Q: What sequence folds into this?
């Protein structure tokens, strides 16, 4: 059983290792309260589980959100086969065919894996075990492809966010009649006369990478065009307003010779506060704020340099348990010779 | 769950069988190799040992005559022996050789299998000659000692070292002969049992100590995290390491057993998925509590002449001092059935049939479980007295009660033959021959020389050791103080009963904690813990450490126990194990070599298993 810390830096090496060795088992990743399980079969990803939510129910929710089936709240689906068998009775409009169903499953799994790009401090355990998955519906996703997708998401993410801001409306562009990939075809069919980005994302049920890549590709070739919607315009105004308020906040703090506790904490310790600012108790006096630990994953006590900072650093330092164990070992090896000598002598008579 | 190929399964099976074989070798080795300190020093010097013979077949005056005949034969033997001693002192080895051959003939005439005291005297003389540089004389005396006592385990085991030094014989052959003889020697077995108790308990305790240390090192991060959760938030990072060291190291200032007990409580609190280690500690504490009184009582009992005589006589080794020793023991312990039984056997051999009969009847009355042995002896008495019908009745009752030994069948066949029931006699003889052909052959030879109705032609019925154990471990007045003294040394402040109470507390904790899996929750503190290199090395190099590393500390502890137990004779600690190399000096390098092989074997298999696991 392999285990250890996992973060953005070592994610690719861990996944590549599992892929190259064609491992079969479950990769459990715990980050705070959240748990993600990725099932591997012969080095390929076959399923992603979010906590205890059955995957079939997640797929059902995606289909419902895409307005393809009726409301599924209260319905339980054992597995993909069970869901697929019930789709005809749940369909709104045309039935969901197997190709679409499998595509939804695949892209759902991809999105689950892509979520790993945001890992900061998590812990993983890989358990070698027989993996049961639905071979009829589940895909075999190559780790290498996923890693490439993640790189592309990171590289093109900024351009995508800039081109397709929240509230933007996508329409067919000036050069519509070009050869399209499968994902581009799905998107073009849904765009029609115009559709919002969020709605298109919801209805296409594509993974983030494929959605981003397909839209950017079509945008570059002129297959689609983007118009900033009213929401996007108001979002831009809102952002500018927030920046102004933040500047004002800083000037007020400076005037009263007290920096923002949040900024100070982040700068001094580089730690992650619980849920953002809510983890900090902002006080008017000069006491350093502290964060109460939680059961599921301790948060680091953020605060000024001093006792808490020292305590926190010592708790994170790797050399502390190392030295403690060495001292313990030396004690248990040498102490008996000093303290138990009389006992040994008694039995040596 | 890993799906394993056929090759991996075969490799694992091979590893397991290697371990079992090695374990078996070293379970046997120390048992046989622990030859204990002299308990028969009082026998060194002129004395008569070996099987005594009863000559008479009638009761009354004839029985008394038989006793007188035996006594005169014994006197003759003593005179002959005195001459041997003089010849040795004068250095007249040729004369000594002739006298010893004559002595051997008298021994055979009397029906003795060995003259152990004389042989031990010869060995002592050989030791003196060797120290003086006379190697040939020493070798001669050793061979003469074997001549007089060819089957005495005590003589053989004491002669191994000298045989090696003087070249009188191959030490491994002598050792194997000694082992074969000692296995049936109840006195030796009891001494081995007594001598194994403390080494075994210490090996177990030390192995558990090492195992728990390894477990704590392995799970240090979990323990630190759990301690940190209990500490105030502001200072937990500072204070947690100190608290960790304090609670783990402080128990070491007490005794080993106290340390194990406290650590077991910590296991229940911090790493409950390792509760089986604490369970083993509970078992070990219980063993200490139970075995300290047994061991000390055995020690006191084996120091008593009467008990040693009881054990030797029930193994078939007799001396002329047996009757007086057992008479005294029977008077001291009027309610001990085994003592009266063995006393009766000694009386029978000396021809005192009526006294023997009374002793057997008393033993039968005292044995509440209705043991059939007195019936067998009463049958033998009846046969020797000429009353075959009465003997037949006794033997048939004994057979119905479940007696099935070769000796019993042989004696019963004689009774049937006496009653002219040749078919039954032949069947019983065949049964005896099937069980022990060597015994039957020897007795038939004796029948040919001594006569069919001779007491020397009777197969001896010996009590099993388990029936003698109650006599050995019976409570001794004022021994409680000794038990308490030993308990105070191993676990200061408590008596054996209190030690068992502490063991019960751990057992209770085991069931209260229940089966637990290691939690998947991970704290943000001490996340980057990796074991120091020196600890990793110890996991690889300490036998059993690999299994602790793999999360199987119980297996690791048992393997380490085995290695420690086998290695104690090399250390010469505890004191009981020192006798091994005293008697086996020539074999010491072999023993050390085999021990090293065993330890390396365990380490190697552990490393293989660890690599496979990773």
A:
């Amino acid at each position: 059983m392999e285990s250890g810390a996992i973060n953005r830096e070592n994610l690719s090496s861990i996944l590549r290792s599992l892929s190259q060795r064609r491992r079969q088992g479950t990769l459990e990743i715990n980050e705070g309260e959240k748990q993600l399980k990725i099932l591997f079969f012969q080095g390929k990803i076959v399923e992603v589980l979010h906590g205890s939510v059955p995957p079939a129910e997640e797929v059902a929710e995606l289909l419902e959100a895409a307005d393809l089936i009726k409301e599924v709240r209260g319905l339980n689906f054992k597995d993909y086969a069970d869901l697929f068998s019930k789709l005809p009775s749940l369909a709104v409009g045309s039935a969901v065919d197997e190709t679409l169903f499998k595509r939804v499953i695949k892209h759902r799994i991809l999105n689950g894996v892509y979520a790993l790009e945001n890992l900061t401090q998590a812990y993983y355990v890989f358990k070698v075990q027989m993996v049961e998955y639905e071979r009829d519906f589940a895909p075999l996703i190559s780790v290498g492809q996923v890693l490439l997708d993640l790189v592309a998401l990171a590289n093109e993410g900024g351009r995508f966010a800039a081109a397709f801001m929240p509230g933007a409306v996508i329409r067919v562009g000036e050069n519509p009649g070009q050869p399209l990939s499968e994902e581009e075809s799905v998107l073009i069919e849904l765009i029609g006369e115009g559709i919002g980005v969020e709605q298109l994302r919801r209805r296409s049920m594509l993974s983030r990478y494929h959605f981003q890549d397909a839209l950017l590709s079509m945008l570059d070739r002129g297959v689609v065009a983007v118009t900033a919607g009213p929401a996007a315009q108001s979002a831009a105004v809102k952002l500018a307003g927030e920046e102004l308020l933040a500047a004002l906040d800083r000037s007020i703090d400076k005037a009263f010779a007290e920096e923002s506790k949040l900024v100070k904490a982040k700068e001094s310790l580089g730690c992650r506060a619980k849920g953002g600012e809510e983890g900090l108790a902002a006080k008017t006096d000069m006491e350093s704020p502290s964060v109460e630990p939680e059961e599921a994953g301790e948060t680091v006590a953020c605060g000024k340099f001093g006792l808490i900072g020292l305590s926190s650093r010592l708790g994170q330092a790797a050399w502390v348990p190392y030295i403690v164990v060495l001292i313990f070992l030396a004690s248990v090896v040498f102490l008996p010779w000093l303290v138990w000598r009389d006992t040994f002598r008694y039995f040596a008579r | 769950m890993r799906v394993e190929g056929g090759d991996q399964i075969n490799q694992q099976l091979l590893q397991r069988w290697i371990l079992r074989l090695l374990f078996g070798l070293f379970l046997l080795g120390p048992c046989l190799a622990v030859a204990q300190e002299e308990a028969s020093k009082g026998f060194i010097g002129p004395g008569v040992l070996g099987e005594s013979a009863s000559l008479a077949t009638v009761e009354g005056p004839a029985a008394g005559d038989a006793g007188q005949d035996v006594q005169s034969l014994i006197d003759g033997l003593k005179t002959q022996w005195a001459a041997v001693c003089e010849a040795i002192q004068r250095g007249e080895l040729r004369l000594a050789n002739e006298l010893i051959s004559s002595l051997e003939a008298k021994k055979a005439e009397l029906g003795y299998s060995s003259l152990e005291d004389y042989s031990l005297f010869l060995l002592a003389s050989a030791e003196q000659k060797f120290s003086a540089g006379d190697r040939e004389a020493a070798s001669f005396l050793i061979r003469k000692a074997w001549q007089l006592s060819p089957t005495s385990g005590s003589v053989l085991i004491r002669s191994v070292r000298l045989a090696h030094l003087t070249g009188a014989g191959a030490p491994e052959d002598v050792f194997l002969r000694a082992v074969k003889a000692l296995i049936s020697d109840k006195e030796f077995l009891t001494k081995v049992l007594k001598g194994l108790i403390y080494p075994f308990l210490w090996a177990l305790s030390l192995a558990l100590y090492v195992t728990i240390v390894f477990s704590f090192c392995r799970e240090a991060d979990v323990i630190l995290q759990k301690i940190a959760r209990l500490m105030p938030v502001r200072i937990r990072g500072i204070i947690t390491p100190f608290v960790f060291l304090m609670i783990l190291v402080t128990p070491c200032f007490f005794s080993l057993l106290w340390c194990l007990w406290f650590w077991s409580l910590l296991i229940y609190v911090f790493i409950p998925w390792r509760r089986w280690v604490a369970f083993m500690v509970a078992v070990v504490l219980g063993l200490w509590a139970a075995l300290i009184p047994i061991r000390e009582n055995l020690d006191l009992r084996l120091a008593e002449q009467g008990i040693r005589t009881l054990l030797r006589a029930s193994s078939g080794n007799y001396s002329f001092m047996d009757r007086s020793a057992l008479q005294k023991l029977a008077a001291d312990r009027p309610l001990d059935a085994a003592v009266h039984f063995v006393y009766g056997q000694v009386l029978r051999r000396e021809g005192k049939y009526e006294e023997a009969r009374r002793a057997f009847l008393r033993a039968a009355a005292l044995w509440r479980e209705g043991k059939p042995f007195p019936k067998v002896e009463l049958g033998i008495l009846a046969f020797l007295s000429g009353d075959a019908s009465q003997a037949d009745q006794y033997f048939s009752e004994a057979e119905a009660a479940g007696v099935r030994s070769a000796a019993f069948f042989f004696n019963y066949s004689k009774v049937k033959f006496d009653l002219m029931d040749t078919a039954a006699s032949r069947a019983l003889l065949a049964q005896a021959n099937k069980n022990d052909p060597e015994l039957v052959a020897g007795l038939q030879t004796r029948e040919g020389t001594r006569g069919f109705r001779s007491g020397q032609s009777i197969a001896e019925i010996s009590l099993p050791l388990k029936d003698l154990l109650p006599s050995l471990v019976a409570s001794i007045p004022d021994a409680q103080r000794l038990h308490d003294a030993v308990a105070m040394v191993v676990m200061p402040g408590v008596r054996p009963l209190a030690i068992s109470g502490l063991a019960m507390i751990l057992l209770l904790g085991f069931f209260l904690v229940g089966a637990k899996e290691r939690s998947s929750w991970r704290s943000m503190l001490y996340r980057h813990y990796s074991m120091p290199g020196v600890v990793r090395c110890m996991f690889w190099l300490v036998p059993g450490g690999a299994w602790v590393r793999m999360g199987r500390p119980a297996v690791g502890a048992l393997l380490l126990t085995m290695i420690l137990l086998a290695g104690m004779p090399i250390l010469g600690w505890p004191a009981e194990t020192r006798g091994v190399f005293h008697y086996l000096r020539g074999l010491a390098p072999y023993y050390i070599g085999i021990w090293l092989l065993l330890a390396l074997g365990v380490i190697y298999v552990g490393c293989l298993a660890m690599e496979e696991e990773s």
The CA atoms of residues 382 and 391 of chain B lie 5 Å apart. DSSP finds 29 helices and no strands in chain B. Residues 1-5, 32-66 of chain B have pLDDT under 50 and may be disordered. Chain B touches chain A through 52 residues (CB under 8 Å).
